[in-house]
Amino acid sequence: MRKASRREAPAKVNLALDILGRRPDGYHELRSVMQTVSLCDTVELREGESGFSLLAEGFALPEGKKTLEQQAAEAFFAHLGRRLPPLAVRLTKRTPAYAGLGGGSADVAALLRLLRDAYAPEMTDDTLEAIGAEAGSDMPFCLRGGTALAEGRGEILTDLPALPDCFLVLCKPPFPIPTPTLFARADSVDIRNRPDIPGMRAALEAGDLEGVAARVGNVFEELLPPEYGEVFTIRDALREAGAMGASMSGSGPTVFGLFRGEDDARAAAERLGCRWRETFLARPVGKLS
Length: 289
Hints:
Layout: E1 5-22, E2 28-47, E3 52-57, H1 68-80, E4 87-92, H2 103-119, H3 125-133, H4 139-144, E5 147-152, E6 156-159, E7 167-172, H5 179-186, H6 197-205, H7 209-213, E8 217-218, H8 220-223, H9 230-240, E9 245-248, E10 255-259, H10 262-273, E11 278-282
Helix pairs in contact: 1-2
């Protein structure tokens, strides 16, 4: 690899997310319809001088421990039976962190694709997804992209027909939500409102955007403690601004709304952006190559 190479790292939303219960291994069994969107970071890879270095513009890196990027790079070269060469990685962050949008996983997925391009172009997608799964449950989807049903811990993927052309407004309130807290509540709360995932699959197969929008939903919303009620304020604001459907993504706190037309979506983004700074206009993205 003689010169720097770069890839975009698209974020994701969960069009529908259900928790089926705790597994014997301590993880939770999930079922989710996931969608890649155009909001993205940029990942750049070049040869380094020594070791593994990571520079993240617009994001504070954790101190005193290996980043997921380094762990994934080490797993990649361990699979090849090689030592980790000197590498320098630069992230340009646009996707909010700790937002339910898979930004960190998307960055690692983009890095793995760059490593494959440079060092193992013959590696299959299945192998790359298996390496990614070692770093996180979202990683296989972030490597594949498009529209997919995710099951198991999120690593078992079934490709679905593409989400019909539309626009998404993403709005993040100014706080994180601890994911372990919500999973712990899932073990003690009787969830009553579950998304209609079979109906959403049927709507996708029919190319029915209204049918998809009518079925967006996330059981984590039912598990939110009262102090995170601003999530519902945003959800209601998106609906009032004309969203066909609106729901929290992942374990939050970002809420997305689906819009058929760009003008309505842009107007909604401007309206919500006056109150919530981290508001973004996006479009669906197909499978990644």
